[in-house]
Amino acid sequence: MKELDFIYKRHSVRKFKDQDVPMDDIKEIIKAGTYAPSGKNLQNWHFVVVKNKDKIEEMAKIVEKKNAELANKLGDEDKKKAFTKYLKYHTVFRKAPVAILVFAGPYPSTGIEILREIGAPKEEIRELLRPNPGIQNIAAALENILLAAANMGYGTCWMTGPMYAGKEITEFLGFEKEGYYLAAMTPLGVPEESELKSPPRKPLEEVMTIIE
Questions:
Q1: Is residue 108 part of a domain?
Q2: Which positions fall inside the Nitroreductase domain (predicted)?
Q3: DSSP letter at 98?
Q4: 130 is a domain residue
């Protein structure tokens, strides 16, 4: 459907042209993120925009250093190789003109305090926490950002791989907001034409169940 073309414009882009992204465009893209739904309308998100190329490169080096530190602690060589081989995907943001970091803030899951007060079993509490609505809010905001960016001619890539270095990246940037932590990030820039493609999707019949 033509009305949904804006959805199909989004691709996971890992190569970008050496072209600036105007701040006005960035603000419009972030604004789209803030219009995502959030439980209790808490909007428990915060967006950190990095345009400084040196800082973006340093963030990539932080991920590389953390990857090496963790890998060197592994005794199993196969596990070590499996972990390090994805490093190139964890640092694709280094060539983008912009990096957007999405921080997640506190979110009280509905009913959790009641379960704790009545002494509910740990299994029941764990089941309630499984949907993690606080992170669902963040995911909705990031998806809005990706769709808005694509509709404006930019490329993005949803990234959670580098989060094992999230604490170090946050400290490097000097960002502080009580209760907030780095949950995901995306590079942002004008994509190389070769990047405008997506892998095949599972058939609808495989991922949809209709109950009448």
A1: yes
A2: 7-188
A3: E
A4: yes
Give, to the nearest 10 degrees, the angle between helix 53-72 and helix 77-84. Answer: 170
Tokens found for residue 92 = 């694709």
pLDDT-derived band at 11, boundaries 50, 70, 90? very high
CB 95 within 8 Å of CB 16:
yes
State the total domains in the chain. 1
Say how far residue 18 (Cα) sits from the centre of its chain.
23
The pTM assigned to this predicted structure is 0.94
Cβ-based burial of 53 (10 A; exposed 0-12, middle 13-18, buried ≥19): middle
Q: What is the pLDDT of residues 13-58, one digit of tens each?
A: 999 999 999 999 999 999 999 999 999 999 999 999 999 999 999 9
d(CA 75, CA 94): 30
